C-alpha cells in the first residue's frame, strides 16, 4: 500500500533535550516507521533551541510531541494535549531527580549546601534537573537565598562542572551519571548523591486531543508495539530507548504537586 500523499502531514515535535543533529539521528527512524505504518506523511520538526520549541508548542503546531513533564502539565492544561505513552530508558520506567557533590567535598547532606554554589542542569523549566532538585532543597528547609543558584547549558554539563570543582553541587537527573557523555569524561565514582527524589513517571509523548480517536489509538499502539519486533527494537535502540510504556494524564499528578510547591499556580 502506498502512502496517502494527500493526507495532512502528521507533525512530530521533540523538545531539545539534545542538539538538533543528535535529535534528528535518534528520531528520524521512528518518524519514517510511523509514516510507513500510518500510510500518511509524517514530518519530524526539529527546534534549534528551547524557546523555538516552546513557541511552536504554544501555536499547537505538533500533532505528536515529546516533552518534559513540566511542559506536558502546561500543554495539557493550556493547549489540550493528552499523554499517550512515556519513555523507558536503561530498562527503567521511572526517572529521579538528584543533587550531586564531589565525594571529597565534605558535603554529606543537603543542609551543608547552605552558602554553596549549586549548578542546575538547565533553566527553571527543567523538570528533573531544576524543579525536582529545588523541591528536594525546599523539603530540607533551604530557601532560594540560602545558596547561590546558577545554570549549566544541560544536565551533563552541570555534573561535569561539579566534578571539575566549578560548583559545589549539581542538580540533574539521577540517570545522568550513567550517560556515556559523562562516564567517558570523568570518574563518576568520585561523585556522591546527597539527595534523590522518589521515582517519578518518565518523559511523556502527547497528542492533540482533537485528533481522530482511531489515529490516536493507532499511534499509541504502534509506539507500544515497537519492542515486539526486530525492526521496532532497532528503532528503539537508535532512539536510545528501552521501550515505550502506556501513560495517561493522571500519571503526572505527582509532578503537579512538585511544580505547585515550587511555582504556586
Automatic annotation (TrEMBL):
Membrane-crossing residue ranges in chain numbering: none
Q: Which Pfam families match?
A: Phosphonate-bd
Q: Which domain of life is it from?
A: Bacteria
Q: Which SUPFAM superfamilies match?
A: Periplasmic binding protein-like II
Designated name of the protein: Phosphate/phosphite/phosphonate ABC transporter substrate-binding protein
